[in-house]
């Protein structure tokens, strides 16, 4: 014997392990591809459903379409564009105002949790933020309708009295204040946890070496955040904002329970019966709509779907450009 030893299993064992690993890799790759394609399939299915169900609102009998639109709008509209226009305007107005109110508050909370709060307080605040993000929208609607609306009417009246010369705050303010401003405030409270949660995780990942270098050069804590943390988290904050905006655009129950609806292009945020959103209008009109009315409502939902898609697409482009810089 030459004294050399052959390992147990020999080359056949290694080849079997290689084949097993390759088989597992192929299975995992197939599952990953399937999961990715499932997203496209779901998006295509939703789009196809909306298009097919909304088609009668554009190609059906003109008299039936006109009758359905007059019924849905209370006689104020006889064409789809004049019907969906104020709804789209109200949706974008309320959601945009909610984002405008929520974004600075969310960034401030996220920075406080990450860099200023003691560890125990930061842990408690993080748990509260995560809990607020999980609260159903109907609970926010109940809070807004039963508590916030009566409580904030006096403040809106005061604001209109002193700043009524600005069109946004022009009166009169009805009691209770079921206006776009009140709804936007409730939606802002709803999306603050979403933006804060994402922003907190992004700020925590800011490069430690950059922060320490800024501090070593004599920068204050705020200067360090402004120079090293905020630029790093810019793309992530845009994505977080779009997540919050997406929820505000599609919110139904809270808007339905608070807002006094109207079909106008009014920017007077404190007036009731001036604006309405697409989602809340669908929920309010759907139970009593006939077949053509349902098709019309689905068509407005298709418009909301397209707007949401475009907003997210724009956010992705902005995020990609921010990452390339």
Automatic annotation (TrEMBL):
Example of a GO cellular component annotation carried by this entry: plasma membrane
Pfam families, per the entry: BPD_transp_1 (PF00528)
Functional description taken from the UniProt entry: Part of the binding-protein-dependent transport system for phosphate; probably responsible for the translocation of the substrate across the membrane.
Leader sequence segment: none
Membrane-crossing segments per the record: 30-52, 87-117, 138-159, 179-199, 235-259, 294-315
GO MF annotation terms: phosphate transmembrane transporter activity
InterPro entries reported in the protein's UniProt record: MetI-like, MetI-like_sf, Phosphate_PstC, Phosphate_Transport_Permease
Keyword terms, alphabetized: Cell membrane, Membrane, Phosphate transport, Transmembrane, Transmembrane helix, Transport
Keyword flag Cell inner membrane: no
Subcellular location: Cell membrane
ABC transmembrane type-1 domain residues: 88-315
Protein name, entry field: Phosphate transport system permease protein
Cited Gene3D superfamilies: MetI-like
One Gene Ontology term from the biological process aspect of the record: phosphate ion transport
Family classification: Belongs to the binding-protein-dependent transport system permease family. CysTW subfamily.
């Amino acid at each position: 014997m030459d004294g050399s030893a052959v390992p147990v299993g020999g080359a056949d064992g290694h080849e079997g392990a290689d084949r097993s690993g390759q088989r597992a890799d192929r299975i995992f790759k197939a599952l990953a591809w399937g999961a990715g394609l499932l997203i496209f399939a779901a998006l295509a299915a939703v789009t196809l459903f909306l298009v097919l169900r909304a088609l009668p609102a554009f190609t059906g009998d003109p008299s039936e379409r006109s009758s359905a639109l007059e019924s849905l709008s209370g006689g104020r509209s006889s064409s789809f564009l004049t019907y969906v226009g104020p709804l789209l305007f109200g949706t974008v107005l309320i959601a945009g105002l909610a984002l405008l109110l929520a974004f600075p508050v969310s960034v401030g909370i996220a920075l406080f949790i990450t860099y200023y709060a003691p560890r125990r307080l930061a842990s408690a605040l993080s748990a509260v933020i995560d809990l607020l993000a999980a609260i159903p929208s109907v609970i926010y609607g109940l809070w807004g309708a039963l508590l916030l609306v009566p409580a904030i009417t006096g403040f809106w009246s005061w604001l209109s009295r002193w700043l009524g010369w600005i069109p946004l705050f022009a009166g009169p303010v009805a009691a209770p204040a079921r206006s776009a401003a009140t709804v936007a405030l409730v939606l802002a409270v709803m999306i603050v946890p979403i933006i804060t949660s994402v922003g907190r995780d992004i700020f925590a990942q800011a490069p430690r070496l950059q922060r320490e270098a800024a501090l070593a050069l004599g920068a204050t804590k705020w200067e360090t955040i402004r120079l090293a943390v905020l630029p790093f988290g810019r793309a992530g904050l845009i994505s977080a904002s779009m997540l919050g905006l997406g929820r505000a655009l599609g919110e139904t129950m809270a808007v339905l329970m608070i807002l006094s609806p109207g079909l106008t292009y009014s920017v007077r945020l404190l007036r009731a019966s001036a604006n309405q959103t697409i989602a809340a209008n669908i929920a309010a009109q759907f139970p009593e709509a006939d077949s053509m009315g349902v098709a019309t409502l689905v068509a407005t939902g298709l418009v909301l779907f397209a707007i949401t898609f475009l907003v997210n697409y724009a956010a992705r482009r902005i995020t990609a450009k921010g990452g390339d810089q």
